Amino acid sequence: MLTGKQKRFLRARANQIKPIFQVGKTGVNENMVTQITDALEKRELLKVSILQNCLEDKTVVSEQLAEGTGAEVVQIIGNNIVLYKESTENKHIVLP
Protein backbone atom coordinates (compact mmCIF):
# COMPACT_ATOMS: atom_id res chain seq x y z
CA MET A 1 0.00 0.00 0.00
CA LEU A 2 1.38 3.36 -1.02
CA THR A 3 1.27 6.38 1.26
CA GLY A 4 0.17 9.82 0.07
CA LYS A 5 3.76 11.06 -0.06
CA GLN A 6 4.82 8.06 -2.17
CA LYS A 7 1.89 8.55 -4.57
CA ARG A 8 2.78 12.23 -4.94
CA PHE A 9 6.39 11.27 -5.73
CA LEU A 10 5.27 8.68 -8.33
CA ARG A 11 2.78 11.10 -9.92
CA ALA A 12 5.62 13.60 -10.40
CA ARG A 13 7.80 10.90 -12.01
CA ALA A 14 4.92 9.73 -14.24
CA ASN A 15 4.27 13.23 -15.55
CA GLN A 16 6.95 12.88 -18.23
CA ILE A 17 6.08 9.30 -19.21
CA LYS A 18 4.04 8.59 -22.34
CA PRO A 19 1.46 5.77 -22.32
CA ILE A 20 2.87 2.55 -23.76
CA PHE A 21 -0.30 0.42 -23.64
CA GLN A 22 -3.81 1.11 -24.88
CA VAL A 23 -7.06 -0.51 -23.78
CA GLY A 24 -9.56 -0.66 -26.64
CA LYS A 25 -13.09 -1.91 -27.05
CA THR A 26 -12.16 -5.51 -26.22
CA GLY A 27 -11.14 -4.39 -22.73
CA VAL A 28 -8.52 -6.11 -20.60
CA ASN A 29 -7.42 -9.60 -21.66
CA GLU A 30 -4.83 -12.11 -20.43
CA ASN A 31 -2.27 -11.26 -23.09
CA MET A 32 -2.39 -7.58 -22.16
CA VAL A 33 -2.00 -8.40 -18.45
CA THR A 34 1.11 -10.52 -19.08
CA GLN A 35 2.67 -7.84 -21.29
CA ILE A 36 1.98 -5.13 -18.69
CA THR A 37 3.43 -7.36 -15.96
CA ASP A 38 6.63 -7.78 -17.98
CA ALA A 39 6.84 -4.04 -18.66
CA LEU A 40 6.31 -3.26 -14.97
CA GLU A 41 9.19 -5.57 -14.09
CA LYS A 42 11.46 -3.58 -16.42
CA ARG A 43 10.18 -0.05 -15.76
CA GLU A 44 8.33 -0.16 -12.37
CA LEU A 45 6.17 2.81 -13.39
CA LEU A 46 4.05 3.09 -16.53
CA LYS A 47 0.98 4.66 -18.05
CA VAL A 48 -1.90 2.87 -19.75
CA SER A 49 -4.20 4.82 -22.05
CA ILE A 50 -7.91 4.02 -22.33
CA LEU A 51 -9.30 4.65 -25.80
CA GLN A 52 -12.64 6.35 -26.43
CA ASN A 53 -14.20 3.15 -27.82
CA CYS A 54 -13.56 1.16 -24.62
CA LEU A 55 -16.88 -0.16 -23.34
CA GLU A 56 -15.81 -0.50 -19.70
CA ASP A 57 -15.44 2.27 -17.13
CA LYS A 58 -11.90 3.46 -16.43
CA THR A 59 -12.13 2.54 -12.74
CA VAL A 60 -13.12 -1.02 -13.65
CA VAL A 61 -10.23 -1.23 -16.12
CA SER A 62 -7.78 0.07 -13.49
CA GLU A 63 -9.02 -2.48 -10.92
CA GLN A 64 -8.67 -5.32 -13.45
CA LEU A 65 -5.14 -4.25 -14.37
CA ALA A 66 -4.08 -3.82 -10.75
CA GLU A 67 -5.52 -7.19 -9.76
CA GLY A 68 -4.08 -9.01 -12.77
CA THR A 69 -0.59 -7.55 -12.52
CA GLY A 70 -0.30 -7.16 -8.75
CA ALA A 71 0.46 -3.46 -9.22
CA GLU A 72 -0.79 -0.39 -7.39
CA VAL A 73 -2.92 2.24 -9.12
CA VAL A 74 -1.12 5.52 -8.48
CA GLN A 75 -3.47 7.80 -10.39
CA ILE A 76 -6.33 7.90 -12.87
CA ILE A 77 -6.20 11.16 -14.77
CA GLY A 78 -8.38 11.69 -17.81
CA ASN A 79 -8.16 8.49 -19.81
CA ASN A 80 -4.74 7.50 -18.45
CA ILE A 81 -3.95 5.09 -15.62
CA VAL A 82 -0.60 5.23 -13.83
CA LEU A 83 0.55 1.87 -12.42
CA TYR A 84 3.47 1.11 -10.09
CA LYS A 85 4.94 -2.22 -9.07
CA GLU A 86 8.27 -2.63 -7.32
CA SER A 87 10.67 -4.63 -9.46
CA THR A 88 12.59 -7.55 -8.02
CA GLU A 89 15.56 -7.43 -10.42
CA ASN A 90 15.57 -3.96 -12.05
CA LYS A 91 14.86 -1.71 -9.07
CA HIS A 92 15.64 1.90 -9.93
CA ILE A 93 12.88 3.91 -8.22
CA VAL A 94 13.51 4.58 -4.52
CA LEU A 95 10.32 5.63 -2.76
CA PRO A 96 10.50 8.29 -0.04
How are the elements arranged and paired?
Layout: H1 4-14, E1 21-23, H2 30-43, E2 45-50, H3 58-69, E3 72-77, E4 80-84
Parallel strand pairs: 1-2
Antiparallel strand pairs: 2-4, 3-4
How many beta-strand segments? 4
Q: What's the level 1 CATH class?
A: Alpha Beta
What radius of gyration results from the CA coordinates? 13 Å
CATH A-level architecture: 2-Layer Sandwich
The residue ranges in which pLDDT falls below 50 over 5 or more consecutive positions are: none
Order of helices and strands: HEHEHEE
Structural class: alpha+beta
CATH superfamily: YhbY-like
How would you explain this protein's 3D organization?
The chain is an alpha+beta fold. It has a single domain, classed as Translation Initiation Factor IF3. It contains 3 helices and 4 strands; from the N terminus they run H-E-H-E-H-E-E. A 4-stranded mixed beta sheet has the order 1-2-4-3, with helices on both faces. A hairpin with a 2-residue loop joins strand 3 (72-77) and strand 4 (80-84). The longest helix is centred in the middle third of the chain and has 14 residues, at 30-43. The chain is globular. The model has no long low-confidence stretch (mean pLDDT 94). It holds the Pfam family CRS1_YhbY. This is RNA-binding protein YhbY. InterPro entries: RNA-binding_CRM, RNA-binding_domain, RNA-binding_YhbY, YhbY-like_sf. Keywords: RNA-binding.
List keywords for this structure.
Translation Initiation Factor IF3, single chain, alpha+beta, four-stranded mixed β-sheet, 21% strand, globular, 96 residues, 4 strands
In short:
The protein is 39% helix and 21% strand. By secondary structure, it is α+β, with helices and mostly antiparallel strands. The longest helix is centred in the middle third of the chain and has 14 residues, at 30-43.
